[in-house]
Design a protein that fits this description.
With 94 residues, the protein is an all-alpha fold. The protein is built from 7 helices and no strands.
């Protein structure tokens, strides 16, 4: 069975970033952002500046646009894009 985005975020926050401690509210925020990215890929949902930078693989812009929670989760966003997004969307063909 395919994991939900929430399950993926919560599991990988611990597995990929064991030294980083996230509050449940922080993981809920990252989950929401990942859901928005997935909805952009599958339903053409508009994105704000931070998520547009993530989508465009623009690390510098993403760092500048990130709030404290998103800054902590940048690695999770990268792994989400590589592991959960439709392949054509992360290669700039979307």
């Amino acid at each position: 069975m395919t994991k939900t985005i929430r399950e993926w975020v919560f599991e990988n926050a611990e597995g990929l970033m064991p030294d980083q401690h996230f509050a449940e509210e922080e993981l809920a925020h990252i989950t929401m952002c990942c859901e928005h990215l997935f909805e952009w890929a599958t339903k053409e949902r508009p994105l704000g500046d931070f998520l547009s930078a993530i989508r465009d693989n623009n690390f510098i812009e993403a760092c500048i646009r990130a709030d404290d929670v998103n800054r902590k989760g940048l690695y999770l966003y990268a792994m989400f894009m590589l592991n959960r997004m439709p392949f054509d969307k992360i290669r700039g063909k979307g």
